[in-house]
Amino acid sequence: MDAKIIKVIQQTPDVKTFRFKLEKPLDFTPGQFIIITLEIDGVLERRAYSIASSPTQKEYVEFTIRKIPHGKVSPIIFEMKEGDTFKVRGPFGHFHFDESIKKLCFVVGGTGITPIISMLRYVVDKKLDNNIIVLYGSRSPDEILYREELQRIHDNNANIHIAFTVDHWKEGWQWHTGFIDWNFILEQVPDFIERTYYMCGPQAMINHVTHDLEVHGVHHSKIRLDHWG
Question: What pLDDT is stored for residue 172 in this prediction?
Fold first, then answer.
């Protein structure tokens, strides 16, 4: 399908959100991804990006990317502007929200928030009663993506609790500082054994948290992973 960019949102110096319209509404489940195709130097390049918008939003679709230094595709996309076009295929992927699971924990690092914000927007828009805890780790407070929206979701929805943590403390920061380790999980998720986990972020984070959960009795069938690097 042909896609046309209608808005570009600068999240951080190296992260942008792109909002685009398609020829027809995209039917997808929160957590799925699309494949974008661009022609670069005469070669068709394809990259997969998680969808950030909710399926309840029929007017546009969003994805968020981090510019990879010396990358081949992300620097090109990063410079795209309103009115630019590209090709889209999808949706794809089995890392998607299951609203029948009532107690959930989302463990997120960096731009891994993208499929998770889609799920949260969907839960809020549909007024679902799923009990959700989000553990979101970033390098610094300035690099928390969708921070204001996530704070609003936390403040306005009793069934959703969002806990932030950063690697590097900054003056004025009032949340946790440090990695998403077992102590942080236990502090924020006292009923950890009862929950199903969705994890998206750096591979090292996924490996450590998966190990901690399984060591403490969470069955691997209750851990759902989205690997991206």
Answer: 76
- Tokens (6 digits) for 77: 């996309």
Q: 105-119: b or e for each residue (b if 16 or more CB lie within 10 Å)?
A: bbbbbbbbbbbbbbb
The reported pLDDT for the residue numbered 175 is: 82
* pLDDT less than 50: residues of the chain: 229
| Domains within the chain, CATH numbers bracketed | 2-92 (2.40.30.10), 103-227 (3.40.50.80)
> How far is residue 18's CA from residue 29's CA, in Å, rounded to a whole number?
19
φ, ψ of residue 58 in degrees (nearest 5): -95, -10
Rounded to whole angstroms, what are the CA distances from 151 to 118, 140, 175, 184, 187?
15, 16, 12, 19, 19
Cα–Cα dist 229/225, whole Å: 12
Dihedral sign computed on CA atoms, order 186, 187, 190, 196: negative
